[in-house]
Amino acid sequence: MLRKDPLIHFLVIGGIVFALLSWLDTGPPAGRILITADQVAETTRAAALLQGSPPTEAQLERLIREVVRDEVYYREALDLGLDGDDAVVRQRLIEKMQELALNVVDPVPPEADVEAWFEANAARFRIPELVTFDHVFFSPRERGESVLDDASSALEALRAGAEPASVGDNTPLGSRFEAADDARVRTLFEAELTDAVFSAASGAWIGPFESGFGWHLVRVVERTEARDPAYAEIEARVREAYGEEQLELANEQAFETMLSRFDVVVEWQAGTEPVPWP
Question: Which residues neighbour 10 within 8 Å (Cβ) at sequence distance 6 or greater?
């Protein structure tokens, strides 16, 4: 399982992992794995319950891959004697196998490799256009049918120099949004207000704009253009993202090595002949 702390990402289980992976590379096929029709049906039912509709063929294949993955981890853990004398259940054995076999990455990747990866993935780190704006709210619940007229009157007062705190209603949304991106503003205030604050000149009160909460007046304080940060500016973030990706690739490679030792077949429906998977 991936972790957010890059120090944990780069934890290497030295000699144990080396010996384990060497064993995996040379070991003989470890037997047959049969995914039964009952397991396929139960996986299908669980997915349908979770997402509200039956899984597509591609989704079901991905879910069955996870069933196969767990079975591979379980059997490999048993083969290594990881169960020992303790009473841990199947899931704990799977977790042990993941910890031993999969979290293998270079703890100190070459600087050139990280920088080259950053150049190839610069779009992932692009800082979007950001806007800081003041906000005054008018509640339909409190003002009823007069809410829009009240907001329009308040706009005139603000443009004449009134203090924002002297007009409007209390709101948990806050009176100022600092360095907000399009997605954040659009989620809270919807399209009309979002388009306005990302195009209006700074300093002038504008509105009213309607959202699901009520009506709003806004004043753009500052807007910064989207930009691509330099590597040195976000080196820590880049190294963390690089480590996560390398860990994921190493995990998948180690799993494929273990998977190759098994003959996996799936009985997609009851009464049918199991077929090779994938």
Answer: 105, 106, 107, 108, 243
